[in-house]
Specification:
With 168 residues, the protein is α+β, with helices and mostly antiparallel strands. 48% of the residues lie in helices and 23% in strands. A hairpin with a 2-residue loop joins strand 2 and strand 3. The two termini are 32 Å apart.
Length: 168
């Protein structure tokens, strides 16, 4: 056996700031959608101040749109509008297509954790593959679409030696 170094090319992971700006773009998109579509509808119907069990109906609908946006965009295209703008996407660590279960788990459970305990989102800056809590939970990773990084990888190679027979 001999150890040989070879070059390995992998999609470059998206860092904290790239993901942050993509998320900010997504918040602007969601805010625009709710301001243009939902708010006027609520004003027209007279529901702008309606509360059910001390919960704002407008806030509940906005939250629903927030989660639906992230779930559908991630499942259907692997990226939200913010991620599209910055050329990044969500992929499964096992290189298989994202399943509904993976996306729902990542976007709902993971987002609730990240939104509730905001400091946990900052770990993206400090983990080796720039992963957030919801990436660890769902076995996903956020990568740049067309940017690769080169790494050296050691592999074991079996060398066969030809044996020559000598006749006397």
């Amino acid at each position: 056996m001999q150890i040989k170094k070879v070059k390995d090319y992998r999609l470059k992971t998206a860092g904290f700031w790239t993901r942050f700006w993509a998320y900010l773009i997504d918040l602007i998109v969601i805010s625009s959608l709710t301001s243009i579509l939902v708010k006027p509808l609520f004003l027209l119907i007279g529901w702008e101040d309606l509360e059910i069990l001390h919960l704002s109906l407008y806030g509940s609908v906005t939250s629903f749109i927030f989660y639906i946006y992230f779930v559908l965009m991630t499942k259907l295209w692997g990226q939200t509008i913010g991620k599209m703008a910055l050329g990044i996407r969500v992929v499964s660590e096992n290189q298989k297509p994202l399943t509904w279960g993976t996306v729902l788990f990542r976007e709902c459970i993971g987002r609730i954790i990240s939104v509730t305990v905001k400091i946990l989102y900052i770990i993206v800056a400090f983990t080796p593959c720039n992963k957030a809590i919801h990436d660890y939970i769902a076995d996903t990773i956020v990568v740049h679409e067309n940017t690769f990084e080169e790494r050296e990888k050691e592999i074991a190679v079996e060398i066969k030696q030809e044996q020559k027979e000598t006749e006397f």
